[in-house]
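Bit of a strange request maybe. I'm writing a small parser for C-alpha coordinate strings and I need a real example to test against, not something I typed by hand. Could someone generate the C-alpha coordinates for this chain?
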Amino acid sequence: MLITFEGIDGCGKSTQVSRFEAILRERGISSVVTREPGGTKIGEAIRGILLNSDNTHIVPLAELFLYAADRAQHVGEVIRPALEGGKWVICDRYFDATTVYQGAILGHHEELIELLNREATLGCEPDITFLLDCPAEVGLKRRAKREMRDKGRDRFERKALDFHIKIRYGYLALANKYRDRFRIIDSTLPEDHVARKIREVISPYLPDNG
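Reply from user aminoacidic:
Good idea to test on real output. This should exercise your parser:
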Protein backbone atom coordinates (compact mmCIF):
# COMPACT_ATOMS: atom_id res chain seq x y z
CA MET A 1 0.00 0.00 0.00
CA LEU A 2 1.01 3.58 -0.63
CA ILE A 3 0.03 5.85 2.27
CA THR A 4 0.62 9.59 2.02
CA PHE A 5 0.47 12.34 4.62
CA GLU A 6 -0.47 15.88 3.61
CA GLY A 7 -1.19 19.19 5.28
CA ILE A 8 0.02 22.71 5.83
CA ASP A 9 3.34 23.53 7.47
CA GLY A 10 3.24 22.68 11.16
CA CYS A 11 0.34 20.23 10.95
CA GLY A 12 2.36 17.41 12.52
CA LYS A 13 3.04 15.19 9.51
CA SER A 14 6.57 14.17 10.47
CA THR A 15 5.48 13.09 13.95
CA GLN A 16 2.55 11.04 12.67
CA VAL A 17 4.58 9.46 9.86
CA SER A 18 6.99 8.17 12.51
CA ARG A 19 4.17 6.86 14.66
CA PHE A 20 2.50 5.23 11.66
CA GLU A 21 5.71 3.41 10.81
CA ALA A 22 5.78 2.10 14.39
CA ILE A 23 2.26 0.69 13.96
CA LEU A 24 3.35 -1.24 10.87
CA ARG A 25 6.51 -2.44 12.57
CA GLU A 26 4.45 -3.79 15.48
CA ARG A 27 2.46 -5.87 12.98
CA GLY A 28 5.55 -7.12 11.19
CA ILE A 29 4.76 -5.16 8.03
CA SER A 30 7.81 -4.18 6.00
CA SER A 31 7.66 -0.51 5.06
CA VAL A 32 9.63 2.30 3.46
CA VAL A 33 9.37 5.82 4.87
CA THR A 34 10.17 8.61 2.45
CA ARG A 35 9.36 12.22 1.63
CA GLU A 36 8.93 14.80 -1.09
CA PRO A 37 10.76 16.73 -2.19
CA GLY A 38 13.66 14.39 -1.54
CA GLY A 39 13.69 10.67 -0.92
CA THR A 40 16.64 10.03 -3.26
CA LYS A 41 20.13 11.47 -3.60
CA ILE A 42 19.05 13.43 -6.67
CA GLY A 43 15.83 14.43 -4.92
CA GLU A 44 17.67 15.79 -1.91
CA ALA A 45 19.74 17.99 -4.24
CA ILE A 46 16.51 19.27 -5.82
CA ARG A 47 15.03 19.80 -2.35
CA GLY A 48 17.98 21.99 -1.48
CA ILE A 49 17.19 24.23 -4.44
CA LEU A 50 13.43 24.32 -3.84
CA LEU A 51 13.49 25.10 -0.13
CA ASN A 52 16.51 27.38 -0.01
CA SER A 53 15.27 30.68 1.43
CA ASP A 54 17.71 32.57 -0.80
CA ASN A 55 16.00 31.33 -3.98
CA THR A 56 13.21 33.89 -3.94
CA HIS A 57 13.77 34.57 -7.65
CA ILE A 58 12.88 31.07 -8.81
CA VAL A 59 10.38 31.19 -11.68
CA PRO A 60 7.07 29.42 -10.78
CA LEU A 61 7.14 27.16 -13.84
CA ALA A 62 10.74 26.19 -13.12
CA GLU A 63 9.66 25.34 -9.57
CA LEU A 64 6.86 23.13 -10.90
CA PHE A 65 9.23 21.28 -13.24
CA LEU A 66 11.71 20.73 -10.40
CA TYR A 67 8.99 19.13 -8.28
CA ALA A 68 8.01 16.92 -11.22
CA ALA A 69 11.63 15.90 -11.77
CA ASP A 70 12.02 15.07 -8.08
CA ARG A 71 8.84 12.97 -8.17
CA ALA A 72 9.79 11.08 -11.32
CA GLN A 73 13.12 10.10 -9.77
CA HIS A 74 11.47 9.27 -6.44
CA VAL A 75 8.82 7.01 -7.96
CA GLY A 76 11.24 5.26 -10.28
CA GLU A 77 13.97 4.72 -7.71
CA VAL A 78 12.07 4.24 -4.43
CA ILE A 79 8.28 4.08 -4.49
CA ARG A 80 7.49 1.73 -7.37
CA PRO A 81 10.28 -0.79 -6.55
CA ALA A 82 9.13 -0.89 -2.90
CA LEU A 83 5.50 -1.47 -3.86
CA GLU A 84 6.47 -4.14 -6.37
CA GLY A 85 8.50 -5.79 -3.60
CA GLY A 86 5.41 -6.06 -1.40
CA LYS A 87 6.34 -3.27 0.99
CA TRP A 88 4.15 -0.49 2.29
CA VAL A 89 5.33 3.00 1.39
CA ILE A 90 4.70 5.91 3.75
CA CYS A 91 5.33 9.24 2.08
CA ASP A 92 5.48 12.67 3.73
CA ARG A 93 3.88 14.73 0.92
CA TYR A 94 3.27 13.51 -2.63
CA PHE A 95 1.57 14.85 -5.74
CA ASP A 96 -1.32 16.41 -3.80
CA ALA A 97 1.16 18.90 -2.37
CA THR A 98 2.11 20.00 -5.88
CA THR A 99 -1.55 20.29 -6.86
CA VAL A 100 -2.22 22.57 -3.90
CA TYR A 101 0.98 24.59 -3.52
CA GLN A 102 1.87 25.08 -7.17
CA GLY A 103 -1.81 25.48 -7.98
CA ALA A 104 -1.94 28.38 -5.52
CA ILE A 105 1.23 29.93 -6.95
CA LEU A 106 0.65 29.37 -10.67
CA GLY A 107 -3.08 30.01 -10.82
CA HIS A 108 -4.51 28.77 -14.12
CA HIS A 109 -2.17 25.87 -14.86
CA GLU A 110 -4.30 23.04 -13.47
CA GLU A 111 -4.08 20.92 -16.62
CA LEU A 112 -0.29 21.19 -16.78
CA ILE A 113 0.06 20.32 -13.09
CA GLU A 114 -2.24 17.33 -13.50
CA LEU A 115 -0.33 16.16 -16.57
CA LEU A 116 3.06 16.38 -14.86
CA ASN A 117 1.77 14.63 -11.75
CA ARG A 118 0.30 11.82 -13.84
CA GLU A 119 3.46 11.30 -15.91
CA ALA A 120 5.83 11.50 -12.95
CA THR A 121 3.95 9.02 -10.76
CA LEU A 122 3.85 6.19 -13.32
CA GLY A 123 0.42 5.18 -12.04
CA CYS A 124 1.50 4.97 -8.39
CA GLU A 125 -1.46 6.61 -6.65
CA PRO A 126 -2.00 6.61 -2.89
CA ASP A 127 -4.35 4.05 -1.41
CA ILE A 128 -5.05 6.38 1.51
CA THR A 129 -4.09 10.02 2.03
CA PHE A 130 -4.20 11.39 5.56
CA LEU A 131 -4.84 15.13 5.56
CA LEU A 132 -3.74 16.48 8.92
CA ASP A 133 -5.86 19.59 9.15
CA CYS A 134 -5.39 22.58 11.41
CA PRO A 135 -5.87 26.36 11.12
CA ALA A 136 -2.95 28.12 9.47
CA GLU A 137 -2.35 30.15 12.64
CA VAL A 138 -1.86 26.95 14.64
CA GLY A 139 0.53 25.48 12.08
CA LEU A 140 2.63 28.62 11.90
CA LYS A 141 2.91 28.86 15.69
CA ARG A 142 4.17 25.29 15.78
CA ARG A 143 6.65 26.06 13.01
CA ALA A 144 7.83 29.16 14.84
CA LYS A 145 8.75 27.02 17.83
CA ARG A 146 10.66 24.64 15.59
CA GLU A 147 12.41 27.52 13.86
CA MET A 148 13.67 28.78 17.21
CA ARG A 149 15.06 25.32 17.85
CA ASP A 150 16.44 24.70 14.36
CA LYS A 151 17.42 28.32 13.67
CA GLY A 152 16.13 28.59 10.15
CA ARG A 153 13.10 28.81 7.88
CA ASP A 154 12.66 27.51 4.39
CA ARG A 155 11.27 29.55 1.49
CA PHE A 156 7.63 28.50 1.99
CA GLU A 157 7.67 29.11 5.74
CA ARG A 158 8.53 32.75 5.07
CA LYS A 159 5.31 33.34 3.15
CA ALA A 160 2.50 35.39 4.69
CA LEU A 161 -0.38 33.99 6.74
CA ASP A 162 -2.82 34.53 3.86
CA PHE A 163 -0.80 32.13 1.70
CA HIS A 164 -0.95 29.37 4.32
CA ILE A 165 -4.69 29.91 4.78
CA LYS A 166 -5.12 29.51 1.02
CA ILE A 167 -3.09 26.29 1.11
CA ARG A 168 -5.21 24.88 3.93
CA TYR A 169 -8.45 25.46 2.04
CA GLY A 170 -6.86 24.13 -1.13
CA TYR A 171 -6.20 20.86 0.68
CA LEU A 172 -9.74 20.72 2.07
CA ALA A 173 -11.18 21.28 -1.40
CA LEU A 174 -9.01 18.48 -2.76
CA ALA A 175 -10.08 16.15 0.05
CA ASN A 176 -13.71 16.90 -0.75
CA LYS A 177 -13.10 16.12 -4.42
CA TYR A 178 -11.38 12.77 -3.71
CA ARG A 179 -13.34 11.56 -0.71
CA ASP A 180 -12.66 7.90 -1.48
CA ARG A 181 -8.94 8.41 -0.86
CA PHE A 182 -8.65 11.21 1.67
CA ARG A 183 -9.14 10.91 5.42
CA ILE A 184 -9.24 14.26 7.20
CA ILE A 185 -7.77 14.19 10.71
CA ASP A 186 -8.08 17.12 13.12
CA SER A 187 -4.43 17.74 14.00
CA THR A 188 -5.26 20.31 16.68
CA LEU A 189 -6.01 17.32 18.90
CA PRO A 190 -3.25 15.99 21.19
CA GLU A 191 -0.62 13.93 19.38
CA ASP A 192 -1.82 10.65 20.92
CA HIS A 193 -5.42 11.33 19.84
CA VAL A 194 -4.32 12.05 16.27
CA ALA A 195 -2.32 8.80 16.19
CA ARG A 196 -5.32 6.89 17.54
CA LYS A 197 -7.62 8.23 14.84
CA ILE A 198 -5.10 7.31 12.15
CA ARG A 199 -4.84 3.84 13.61
CA GLU A 200 -8.63 3.45 13.52
CA VAL A 201 -8.59 4.23 9.79
CA ILE A 202 -5.78 1.82 8.97
CA SER A 203 -6.88 -1.07 11.25
CA PRO A 204 -9.03 -2.84 8.61
CA TYR A 205 -5.97 -3.10 6.35
CA LEU A 206 -3.70 -4.62 8.98
CA PRO A 207 -3.27 -8.39 9.59
CA ASP A 208 -6.23 -9.84 11.52
CA ASN A 209 -8.04 -6.51 11.05
CA GLY A 210 -5.83 -4.90 13.70
